[in-house]
Amino acid sequence: MKRIGWFLLLLLTPVLAWAGGGPAAAAESHLTGTIYGYLGIIVFVLAYSLVPLENNIHLRKSKPVLLAAGIIWVLLSVAYIRIGDTHTAHEAIKHSLLEYAELFLFLLAAMTYINAMEERNVFQALRAYLVSRGFSLRMIFWVTGLLAFFISPIADNLTTALLMGAVVMAVGGDNKKFVALACINVVVAANAGGAFSPFGDITTLMVWQKAKVQFSEFFRIFIPSLVNWMVPAVVMSLAIEKATPKTLDESIQMKYGAKAIMAFFLMTIATAVCFHNFLHLPPVAGMMLGLGFLGPLSYHIKMHEGRAERYDYILGARGAESLYPITTITKSKLDLSQIIEKIDLPAFAIDIDHTITHWNKACERFTGRNAREMVGTRDQWKPFYEDQQPVMADLVLNYMPEKMIDRQYEGNFTRNEYISGAYEASRFVSTLGDSGRWVSFTGAPVKDESGNVLGAVEVLEDFTEKKAAAKHFDLMKKIARAEWDTLLFFYGVILCVGGLAQFGYLGAISQYMYHDLGATWANVIVGFLSAIVDNIPVMFAVLTMDPAMSHGQWLLVTLTAGVGGSMLSIGSAAGVALMGTARGTYTFGTHLKWTPIIILGYAASIVCHLFINAHLM
C-alpha cells in the first residue's frame, strides 16, 4: 500500500517537482511530514495546474510558477528556522539559482542568434524556396518532416516547428486534413530531432551541462530518434493525397550578413563544445563568448547599411530606424546618395524647393517609377495619390503643425521620439499593386552639421502582410513573448523543484521509481509524464535525483524525455506553438487521433535503443 500511495502521489502532482539541492541534504532535513512541506506541495500543484490551461485562460505560464517559487522558499526557510537552522536554506537556494543562471545565459545566447537569423531573412528565404518548388502534398509532408528532424538539433524544436508549420500552411491552404497531418508530422520530427543534440531541447541541454552525456555521445540515440519519427510518418503519409497544389510565387532574399551569422552560430556551438570538453569550463561560458562574436559582425552590418551615427542593436535595424544616419549628413549630395541607396527600404529625398533629388532602387521597385522620370520633378505624390497633395516629406519640410498631418493621415500618425521634426504615419494606398497596399511613411528633415535644413527624406515600408497577420496571429510577437515567458517559467520551475526537493520528497520517489520499478521502466514512464507535464521539470527532477544507473539508461531517459512530448499536442512547446498558428485545424483532438501510432513509434525507438546500445545498458 505504501508503494501504491507514492505512485498515486507521483501521478497526482506534476512530477512532485523532482529536483533541488541534492538528495543528501533533503534526506537529512526530515521535513517531509511537516505542514510546511504539505503546503509547498499544494502550492506547486495549484500553480502548475494552470500551466496547461495557458491558452484557455490567457494566463502566461510563468506567472503562477514564479509566485509558487517564492512561497515555497518562504515555507522552506520558515521550516528550517523552526528547527534552529538558518544556513541550509540559504545555501540550497544559491545552488538552484546557479542552475538557473547557467541555463538562462545559454538560452539567451542561442535565442539571440536565432532571432538574428530571423531578422536577416534566413528562415523566410528557406520557406519561400519550399513553397515555390511545386512539390506534391505528399512530398511537402516528407520534406517538412525531414527538415524539421535535421534543423531542430541546431535551431531548437520550437523555432523549427514554427518555420515548417508556416510552409505547411502556405502550401496546404484550405486542405485541413493535410495541414493537420503535416503539423503532427512536424511536431514529432522536431521533437525527435531535438533529442539527439544538446541544442535541440532544454532537456538535452540540461543533461549535457550536468555531464551525464558527452556531446558526441548524443549521436548514439540518432537512430532511435529517427525511428521515433519514421514509424508514425510512414503510417500518416498513407493518408496524404498525391495532389499537387498550385505553385506559390514567392521569392525572398537573405539580407546582408545572413550567411556570416549562420557561420558564427556554428562557431559558437563549436566554442561551447570545446569549453566543455577541452577547457573543462561550463558550456555556457563558450556560448557567451560566441555571443561576443556577434558584436563585431553586427557593427560591420551597421556600417555597411549606413547606420554609423547611432548605436547598433545586435539584431540590426528596420523601418524608421534606417532614417537615423540622415540626421547628421553633410552638405554633400554624394553622401546623401550613398546613404539613400544603402537603405534597404524604399526611400526618396527632396530639396528645400520640394524637388526630388534622390529616388533609390528599392523605391523604383516598390512604386514602379524609375529614378530618371522622378528626379528633378515635384511628382512625389503620383505613386500614392490620384490627385496632387503633400506627402510626409513635404509636410515635415514645411514644419506643418500636427493638425495638418492629422488631417492628411486621419489620425494614423505619431511623432518620432528619436528624430527631431520626424513623423511616422500609415494608410492604405489604392494605387499600389493590383488591389492596393498598406504603407507606412516616415519623413524627417535633412540638416547639415550646422542645423540648416537642406530638404527632407521619406522612407516607405509595405506592411500589408503584417497588418493582415495582426488580425489573426502576430507570429513574431508571439515568439518574442514565448521566449521571455519561457525563460521566466524556467526560473519558477527550477526554484519550485529545488524547494520541494529540499523538503525531502525526492528520496521516496527515487526509491520507488528507480529501485522498485527498475531504471528501464522508470525511464519509460518519464516519457509518458513528459506528454502530460512539461518535460523540463521531469528531466530536471531526474538529474537532481541522480539515480545510480548505467550510461545506457541516461541515454534512454534523454531519449524518452525528448520524444515523449510528441504523444499529445500539449506535450511540447512545438505542439503548443503550432496549435496557435494553425488554430482550428491542428487541434488537441486531431493530434489525439494519431496518438496510438505515435506511441507505436515511441515504443519502437525504445526497443531500437535497447538493441543498438545494449552494451551500455
UniProtKB/TrEMBL annotation:
Span of the signal peptide: 1-19
Transport recorded as keyword: yes
Compartments, record wording: Membrane
GO molecular function annotation: antiporter activity
A Gene Ontology biological process term: sodium ion transport
Gene3D superfamilies hit by this protein: PAS domain (3.30.450.20)
Record keywords: Antiport, Ion transport, Membrane, Signal, Sodium, Sodium transport, Transmembrane, Transmembrane helix, Transport
PROSITE patterns xrefs: PAC (PS50113), PAS (PS50112)
A single cellular component GO annotation: membrane
Domain of life of the source: Bacteria
Domain PAC stretches: 422-475
CDD domains found in the cross-reference section: PAS
Name of one Pfam family that matches: CitMHS
Topology of this chain in the membrane: Multi-pass membrane protein
Transmembrane region(s): 36-53, 65-83, 95-114, 135-151, 178-199, 219-240, 260-278, 486-509, 521-543, 555-582, 594-612
Residue ranges of every copy of the PAS domain listed in the record: 332-376
Keyword Mitochondrion recorded: no
Family: Belongs to the NhaD Na(+)/H(+) (TC 2.A.62) antiporter family.
UniProt xrefs under NCBIfam families: NhaD_1 (NF038006), sensory_box (TIGR00229)
Descriptive protein name: Sodium:proton antiporter
Protein species of origin: Desulfosarcina widdelii
Lineage: Bacteria, Pseudomonadati, Thermodesulfobacteriota, Desulfobacteria, Desulfobacterales
